[in-house]
Amino acid sequence: MNTATTGGIRTALNTKITATRSRLRAATVGRPGWSGKAWRIAAWSGFRVWMFARGLGTWAGKHPLPVALGALLAVGWWGVLTLAELPGDRTTGPVLLLVVFLLPGLFMGTWAMLAPRRYLLTMYAWKVRDSWPKVAQSCGLSARRPDGTIVISRLVHVRRAPGAVVLRIETFTGQTPDDLYRAAPAICTAFRAHGYEPSKVKPGVLDLALFTTATIAPAVASVPGIENATPDNVPVGRSRAGLPACVQVRGQHTLVVGATGAGKGSALWSVVGNLAPAVPAGLVQFWGLDLKGGVELEMGRALFARVAYSNDAALPVLRELLAVIDRRKETMRGVSRLHVPTPGDPLHVLVIDELADLMAYAEFDVRREADRLMSKILTQGRALGVVVLACVQNPRQEAVGQRNLYPQKIALRLDSDIESDMVLGPHARLAPAHDIAGTEPGTAYLVGEDGMPSLIRFDYWDDDLIRHVAATYPAPALAASAPREGMDAVNAWARARGHLAVVDTPDDSPTDGPATEAAAVAPAPRPRKPRAPRKPRAPRAPRAPRAARPTASAEEV
Ligand SMILES: Nc1ncnc2c1ncn2[C@@H]1O[C@H](COP(=O)(O)OP(=O)(O)OP(=O)(O)O)[C@@H](O)[C@H]1O
Ligand SMILES: [Mg+2]
C-alpha cells in the first residue's frame, strides 16, 4: 500500500473518531443545564476513581510480594477468628493489616487521583530511565569495544517538562551528535511518544524531548497587544509544551507551505495581525500579493500599503519593492549592515498568498519577470529591511524554485514525505509534516536558521477579528479613518521607545512608500545643510566616427 493510500485511510479514520467523540460529548458532558452538569460530575468522579485504581494497581503489579503477604496475613487473621469462632471484630484487624502492607500503593493511588497529569508524566519518565540501556542498544546507540565490553550513550538525566519528558543524552568516544539525531525517531517510537524535538546542549550532549501529548489544542487569537508588535519575535501561537511560539520576521524571509485547508491563513494572519500595531506607527509596512483574487487579504486590506490581486498587477508591486531595496542600499552603505526599523523608515514585509500562481501557473513572460524580481528581493532584501512571507500549497520545484532562499520555513500539513523532504531538506526526518493530521489545521513545524524544528500551532484568526484589527491599526495612508484610541496607544508606545528604537527622522529622508502619518509621531526633524549647487558639466567631446561592423554582427543585433 503506498503512502498516499495509508495517509488517506489514517485521515478518514481520524475524522471518524473525532466526529464520534464530538457526538458523544454533545450527548453527555456538553449538554446544557442540569443534565450536562450531572454528566460532568459523573465523568470527573469516574476519572478520579479510575486514576486511583490505576496508581494502586501499577504499584501492586510491580511489588507482588508485599501484596501477597498482606493478603495472606489478612485472610489468615480473618480465617482463624472465624474458624475458631473467637469473639471480637473480624474486619478491622485484617483491613488495617492490609492497609499497612499496601501503604505505598495507596499513596501512589492518591497521588494519581489528585494530580493525574504529573503522576502519568513521572511514571513515563521512570519507565524511560529504567529501559534506557535496552532501548539505546536497540536503536544503535551502542558499540562493542575491542576488549568485548559494550558501551552505550549515557543517559545523564530525565526531567519532566510541560507535556513532555526530556532525556539528556551524552555521546561516547567514537560517536557523533549525528548518530544521536539519527536514532531520535527510533527512540521516540520505542517509548511510544507522540513526537520528539532534539536540541543541542553542548558539544556531544543533546536534549531529546519526547512528547506525551498528540496534539496542541486549538486557540483563537485575540486583539494583539502593542507590546508584542516587535518584528524580532512575533508571538503567533503555542508550542507543544504550551509556551508561546514566536516567529522572527525582521532579517528573515519565511516560506509557509501547507496542503489546502492546512491553515496557511492562520500563519499569515498570526504574523500580520500581531505586527499590526506597528503599522500606524510607521515601523512596519505591509505589501500584499493575493493571487487568489484577494479573497484572503481583502479582509484586512487597511493594514496594507499596497496590494495586488492578479499576476499582472503583482509585477509593478515587486518592481516598486525592488526600488525600495535600491534606495536603501544607498542610505545604508557604510552606516549599518542590518536595517533597524524606525518611524518613517519601516520594515517592509511582502506578504504573498498562493505564490505558485505567480511563479508556476502564470504566463511565461510574467513568470520569468516574477522569478527575476523575486530572486533579487530574496537575495538582497533581508538585511535591507525588506522581507518576504510567502504562502504556497505546492512546494515542488516549478512552484517554489527559490525555496532555498527562504532561511525560515513553516511546514503545515503536507501530502507526502517527498513534500516534507522538498520543503525542509535534511531537517525533514526531525519534522514529519506529512504526519500532521487533517483534523489539526494550523499545526506546523517551524524550522529556523539553526535547523532545529519545533511543532507549534498557530492561533486561529476569524474574519471579524481581522476586520477589527485592520480598522484599529490601518496603514498610515489609510489612517484618517482609524479610531483615535488605537492611534493614541500606538503613538504613546512609539514615543516610549517600546521594542524598537525611535529616532529623529530627517524630513528629506528617502520615502520608501506612501506618505506616512508616522512623521507626526516622530520627533522634530533635524535642520539640514543646504546642498551645494551642482557643477555644470563639461561639454562632451564629439565621438570619433565608428568603423563599419561586419554584416553578421549587425544581423545579430
Ligand atoms: N489555527 C487554527 N486552529 C483551528 N482551526 C483552524 C486553524 N487554522 C485554520 N483552521 C481551520 O481550517 C480551515 C482552513 O484554513 P485556511 O483557510 O487557513 O487553510 P489554507 O491552508 O489557507 O487553505 P487553502 O490553501 O485552500 O487556502 C479554516 O476555515 C478553519 O476552520
Ligand atoms: Mg488560504
Unreliable stretches: 480-486, 496-530, 544-557
Bound molecules: adenosine-5'-triphosphate, magnesium ion
CATH class of the largest domain: Alpha Beta
Strand arrangement, largest sheet?
8-7-16-15-14-9-13-12-10-11
Helix/strand/pairing category = alpha/beta
Structure description:
The chain is α/β, with parallel strands linked by helices. The strands form three sheets. The chain has a ten-stranded mixed beta sheet. Strands 3-4-6-5 form a four-stranded antiparallel beta sheet, with helices on one face. 38% of the residues are buried. A hairpin with a 5-residue loop joins strand 1 (142-144) and strand 2 (150-152). The chain has three domains: 25-114, no CATH class; 124-211, Threonyl-tRNA Synthetase, Chain A, domain 2 (2-Layer Sandwich), CATH 3.30.980; 226-468, P-loop containing nucleotide triphosphate hydrolases (Rossmann fold, 3-Layer(aba) Sandwich), CATH 3.40.50.300. The two termini are 59 Å apart. The chain has 16 helices and 16 strands. Magnesium ion binds next to helix 8.
